[in-house]
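Notes from the 1:1 (GR / supervisor)

We went over the backlog. Supervisor wanted to see one worked example end to end before approving the batch request, so GR pasted a single chain during the call. The sequence is below; no edits were made to it. Supervisor asked that the structure be written out right there so they could see what the output format looks like.
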Amino acid sequence: MKLLHVLLPVLLLSLIACKSSRDQATTQRPPNIIYIMSDDQGYADLGCYDSKFVQTPNLDRMAAEGMRFTQVYAGSPVCAPTRCALMTGKHDGHLTRRDNRTTDDADKPFMQRKLVPLKAEDYTIGEMMQDAGYATGAIGKWGLGNPGTTGTPTLQGFDYFYGYIDQVHAHNYYTDYLMRNTDTVPIPENRNNQRQVYTHDLMAADALDFVRQHREEPFFLYLPYTTPHGRYEVPDNSQYAGQPWPEQVKNYAAMITRMDKDIGELFTLLKELGLDENTIVFFTSDHGPNPPFIEPLESNKPFRGVKRQLLEGGLRVPMIVRWPGKIRAGTVSDFPWAFWDVMPTMAELAATQTPENIDGISVLPTLLGQQQQPHDYFYWEFYSPFQQAVRVDHWKGIRLGTEEPIHLFDLNKDPEELNDLAGQHPDIVQKMENIMAEAHTPSPYWPTVATAGEEAKKILSAKE
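Structure output shown during the call:
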């Protein structure tokens, strides 16, 4: 009995020490990171962003359990350069890829246009996370370098890839093949236009498998879904059958709701595997919506502009970030940031060094409820048609050619960018012009344009 009295405190201290060690190891393990990105989805196409039309219960729950942002910007108003900004931490003026196509092939058939790949020397989020000891996976639409180029995902930091490497191929939801790493994976059920397998479902299931396979190690899963972009086709739109919309609008809404269901299954799996509290999940869209959804769904509300335009409707995107126990649930932030901030944010999350010569800043302080200094400015440029835009504080400047006037808008009072105040604030206009000159570096594929064409002029004259 005396021996028991002697040993019992020792045993208790040993148990406490073991538990403390386990807790410390859990705390020291860096968080898993999942970055989900929809394709061509509007800012207002989620219930938590005041959609009255599209049902997104799981993303709404994600917002209720995390932080929802109101002033996050895409890297570009089209697919490839916005992904390039995300991957490299740079804004449009410094990107390898600044448009879906080059300006010298505009007259060629779509399939013959040059798709400029990431260069071998481009340092990506994938490579950074590999260097930090993470397992890295990309599942969905890549669009930054076709097979055989330096821009393929397995050459740009991803241990594993499944989906569409070519961005044009990604328009087809009933293709008869997808790519796994560099291999072609046949989908025989879709041969000869049989349309039996919806590829989004394959990629959603593959994302769950990736999480299961890497549950014992830190992982980064980049999940750029193809929905609701492309041909607006979906196996079932019955949820919206009673709506007085054109068929493609019903399909578009059903595609978002189907994606929402799969995101819900992902969160369920994280809980089942005990990974929920050590996994930070981001959800966003790659840029603004296409015009067919502006009137029936109010997809860009409360903004003006659509995909391919540097107005707020083309650039402002939803952003929800959830990390139980770290990010305060149910918070809404108006801190402005952009896709080029994701790379340094992930670097801080992974406790690794932020790459040099990037344009982003870490927004982890904001995610954790702390104050931080905002960007001095945001800069974008786009080439079909040519546009430049700058945001400084609440001021937004847009011009449609290097020799065209800058149109100036006060986003606090005029989020639709309807009232040009350039004549009243020449000092701010001059600052915008200086930034446009400073932020742009020349590209051999995308020369700047001096004077706006008729297509470009419609951007500021027409109210979408």
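Supervisor's comment: The domain at 29-370 is CATH 3.40.720.10 (Alkaline Phosphatase, subunit A).
Batch request approved.
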